[in-house]
């Protein structure tokens, strides 16, 4: 049951891990560690219909543990490094959503990523993060409010 879920959802699982660690190889390591942890503790899964939120919770916690260990010291990917070496600049005037998300506090980023990028329902997000549904609704509202403020600031700068 668990392996079948992982096989069918490997892209989403990788995307979730990548949204936290921001590095291809590290995301693969996180996924591998999460699978190992899931296999070790699959007996704790009492409701097979909750395998998605159960496994996503493992991935989120494994990602956060990884980040705590690394203390935000991340090597730059080759593509980004090459961009700086060539002296190329980002000439786009659009908002860098990735950068904006990284600047959000972790509790807000997790809710945004799980809700909108992984397309989980509010109840599933609450289950993954082991929080109350109302807490998740509040965090989602607050996160969207912060992002809206960032958008207004950006638009104001562009109009000058």
Describe the protein's architecture and organization.
The protein is mostly helical. It has 2 domains: 1-74, RNA polymerase sigma factor, region 2, helix turn helix motif (Rna Polymerase Sigma Factor, Chain: A); 92-160, Arc Repressor Mutant, subunit A (Orthogonal Bundle). Helices cover 74% and strands 0% of the residues. The protein contains 9 helices and no strands.
Question: Topology of this protein?
Answer:
Blueprint: H1 2-8, H2 10-21, H3 24-41, H4 51-70, H5 78-85, H6 97-103, H7 106-117, H8 122-129, H9 133-159
Helix pairs in contact: 2-3, 2-4, 3-4, 4-8, 7-9, 8-9
InterPro entries: RNA_pol_sigma-70-like (IPR039425), RNA_pol_sigma-70_dom (IPR014284), RNA_pol_sigma70_r2 (IPR007627), RNA_pol_sigma70_r4_t2 (IPR013249), RNA_pol_sigma_r2 (IPR013325), RNA_pol_sigma_r3/r4-like (IPR013324), WH-like_DNA-bd_sf (IPR036388)
GO molecular function: DNA binding; sigma factor activity
Organism: Paenibacillus pinisoli
Q: Remind me, CATH topology of the largest domain? A: Rna Polymerase Sigma Factor, Chain: A
Question: Gap between N and C termini, in Å?
Answer: 56 Å
Question: How many helices?
Answer: 9
Roughly what is the average pLDDT, rounded to an integer? Answer: 83
CATH class of the largest domain: Mainly Alpha
Largest sheet: none
Molecular shape: globular
Kindly state the number of beta strands. 0
Strand content: under 5%
In which range does the helix fraction lie?
over 70%
List low-confidence stretches.
87-93
Q: Helix-strand pattern, N to C? A: HHHHHHHHH
* Structural category: mainly alpha
Rg over CA atoms, rounded to whole Å, is: 18 Å
Fourth-level CATH superfamily of the largest domain: RNA polymerase sigma factor, region 2, helix turn helix motif
Q: How many domains in all?
A: 2
CATH architecture annotation name of the largest domain: Orthogonal Bundle
